[in-house]
Input
Amino acid sequence: MTSTPSTRVTIKDVAARAGVSKGAVSLAFNHKPGLSEATRDRIFRAARELGWAPNLTARSLAGSRVDVVGLTVCRPARMLGLEPFYMEFVSGVESVLIEHSCSLLLRLVNSVEEEAGLLESWWKARQIGGSILVDFRADDPRVAVAGRLGLPVVAVGHPSLTGGLTSVWTDDATAVTEAVRYLAALGHRRIARVGGAAALGHTAIRTAAFDTAARELGLAGASQVATDFSGAAGARATRSLLTAAPRDRPTAIVYDNDIMAVAGLSVATEMGLRVPADVSLLAWDDSQLCRLTHPTLSAMSHDVHGFGAEVARTLFGAIMGGAHGSHPVPTPVLTPRGSTAPPKV
Amino acid sequence: MTSTPSTRVTIKDVAARAGVSKGAVSLAFNHKPGLSEATRDRIFRAARELGWAPNLTARSLAGSRVDVVGLTVCRPARMLGLEPFYMEFVSGVESVLIEHSCSLLLRLVNSVEEEAGLLESWWKARQIGGSILVDFRADDPRVAVAGRLGLPVVAVGHPSLTGGLTSVWTDDATAVTEAVRYLAALGHRRIARVGGAAALGHTAIRTAAFDTAARELGLAGASQVATDFSGAAGARATRSLLTAAPRDRPTAIVYDNDIMAVAGLSVATEMGLRVPADVSLLAWDDSQLCRLTHPTLSAMSHDVHGFGAEVARTLFGAIMGGAHGSHPVPTPVLTPRGSTAPPKV
DNA sequence: CTGAAAGCGCTTACAG
DNA sequence: CTGAAAGCGCTTACAG
Output
């Protein structure tokens, strides 16, 4: 055991100890050809003995690549903690980053403008090699910024929102349609949707799809309301929907995430309505939360971890210069549980 | 508007445009004395016109500091998404980092050993200027690693767990004691605790405090069980507790987080028990989730965002070379809601 | 108050 | 298959 010297050991020390040049050490650690097996071994042994690892800062400066990818998230902090979606998404991203010894630079921001500015700073400061972009809005400023800078990105969102950037997306329109058809097939006619933040592109897509599906099925009693994704907003929306006269009241409600569905379930219970006998509830995203309620919540489920992994994989493609176009991931599928049933009328 | 040149602009270009040396530009951007107001202005104008920002990679190499702090989290990904605690904690950390233009490097890992190794890699690779350490275990290897490397850290955990590292901690023992006393004051004698992962130091502290409090109050029917913090485990533990014969069954249950309390509430409902008439439930951490259930959950509440902010502040102190010792943050306080009441016997 | 030079720790052609 | 040199974009003494 060699004790760690108090002064930092550098590539020079390793080269000296192995009896080679700095260049040779560099070749060995970057797995490049041009070294004999024996030399390579000597170098790695010397490095191990000295406890040396390449200084990634220096490597970035000298080379070109940066082993860090960015992720900015623009949602109120209080709400984020309650969206199981994000942490699962991040864990999926991480699972792929780790294979590339790459790290995730995370930042919570307050506006898309700030988000666009941060992207530019990070890129100009060479802090990131690429970035993941989520929560697209109409005319999102990040599209132009990424294009102008030549920043490698992967946009999480439908191609219609992400202006030609490389994208990975979920077919929300199809999923919403399936949700509505399922409830209609159970016999529901008055179906409501408690949607997410109206400013987000994917909310708009779901809203349009819901309208279309309701029209095609001739559902006169269909209605929608936008919220901010919070449990409190979901509760409020549900309360307002359920206080209508029984003959106008929806018999089924679809939610845009699962936290609002959980809140909606409480409201229904508190109002003395039985779920699913009096009202059916359908959640979205389907985290573990949906299996913790009573009754359990039916949901449109989604492999969020896998989604994150696919996004990371696509980003590496973009950084390497490949990966263009749009990459759909599997559409959320209906998972019926205890909160949906034919209406009892 | 100057269009952005396709080749990267550097400090040299800015210096040339402002008619000064690179050193002068450096002084200006680091807010160091030694430049006339006029020169400073010229430099900033030139930088703005060229759209230049310092390359942080080069700055780190040349200087000493690194504007990135690390955070490793060792919990199963699936569970993380459901712990509102983490995202709120991270958002608190971010709120302080932003003031220092500092970024957060996040990594999910699978073991403390991996965590300790990662810390060493990050530090040796000069990727971080310091790190936040959470979820301490008995004989945690990170204590030695941080000490040996001289890595500036702040350990989130009771001083008895963090081996002399600078620490920020919550007085869990006092909070547990308050929880037990409150339930006892309501008249409960058979109180159970559904704890978190046994391997974690703070779980051990809570377990010991619960035992002591129960003994001091002469609560013969007190019992505890360890879980993995997941809703599923919380549900299982609750079901097992509540299937006991009525005269042995606990009349109150304290949980180590709120997701398990939510799961416990469902189980009680599903078993036909009324909350709080038949059994009182007390959650921990108190995210928004506790206000979304029916009845709402009483909880030991905690400013998790503020906790994260304090941790980040302390870390900056440690990086600057100050900040030693242990820093307690406010103890969680009891927030009574609809899930606790005197036992109906 | 300012300029020229050395150096941070690597990588990358380019010679040998 | 290996070595010596230049350069990545900054900061920091050290002269002037």
User: Anything to note?
Assistant: Chain B has 13 helices and twelve strands. Residues 1-6 of chain B have pLDDT under 50 and may be disordered. The radius of gyration of chain B is 26 Å. The first helix of chain B runs from residue 11 to 18.
